[in-house]
């Protein structure tokens, strides 16, 4: 449903929310390495997020990208609007041109509640709330240091 660009932007914003603040900034090379994302592509995405005031940045030897307290008030929906736009969320799951509650496709009433739940979370939860959840529950945003532990009960 989301483009790779949008997924990278969301992951980078969450990473910055965890790793940075007004005093601690991270350069694009470090973010790209940690998230295993192509650096030139990520640089363009971060510039786009900065231009749209979702991420902050400073130039110079101690510069880099960071998520300020104000930036943490943004939502995943804000990122989606900037990177992908919102039209994908209005489209029919089966790709039909005329699908609505009044004229539903065969799976409309199955998919619609899930779509509404996702949209609610994307619109209502702030980056700060996602960051808190990640910190308290060990959720993964990068597989770089993620180890798979095998069950040894054989």
Please sum up the structure shown.
The chain is mainly alpha-helical and about 150 residues long. Helix content is about 45%, strand content about 5%.
Map the helices and strands.
Blueprint: H1 4-19, H2 28-35, H3 39-51, E1 56-58, E2 64-66, H4 76-83, H5 108-124, H6 127-137
Antiparallel strand pairs: 1-2
Helix pairs in contact: 1-3, 1-4, 1-6, 2-3
Task: Quickly list its features.
Arc Repressor Mutant, subunit A; 154 residues; disordered C terminus; mainly alpha; elongated; two-stranded antiparallel sheet
Task: Provide structural commentary.
The protein is mostly helical and 154 residues long. The chain has a single domain, classed as Orthogonal Bundle (Arc Repressor Mutant, subunit A). 47% of the residues lie in helices and 4% in strands. The chain contains six helices and two strands; from the N terminus they run H-H-H-E-E-H-H-H. Strands 1-2 form a two-stranded antiparallel ribbon. The termini are far apart.
């Amino acid at each position: 449903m989301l483009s790779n660009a949008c997924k990278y932007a969301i992951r980078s914003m969450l990473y910055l929310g965890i790793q940075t603040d007004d005093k601690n900034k991270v350069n694009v090379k470090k973010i790209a390495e940690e998230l295993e994302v192509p650096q030139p592509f990520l640089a363009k995405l971060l510039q786009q997020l900065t231009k749209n005031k979702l991420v902050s940045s400073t130039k110079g030897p101690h510069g880099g990208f960071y998520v300020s307290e104000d930036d943490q008030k943004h939502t995943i929906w804000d990122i989606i609007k900037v990177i992908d736009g919102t039209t994908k969320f209005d489209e029919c799951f089966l790709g039909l041109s005329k699908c609505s509650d009044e004229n539903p496709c065969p799976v409309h009433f199955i998919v619609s509640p899930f779509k509404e739940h996702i949209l609610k979370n994307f619109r209502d939860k702030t980056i700060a709330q996602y960051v808190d959840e990640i910190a308290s529950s060990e959720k993964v945003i990068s597989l770089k240091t993620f180890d798979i532990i095998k069950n040894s009960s054989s």
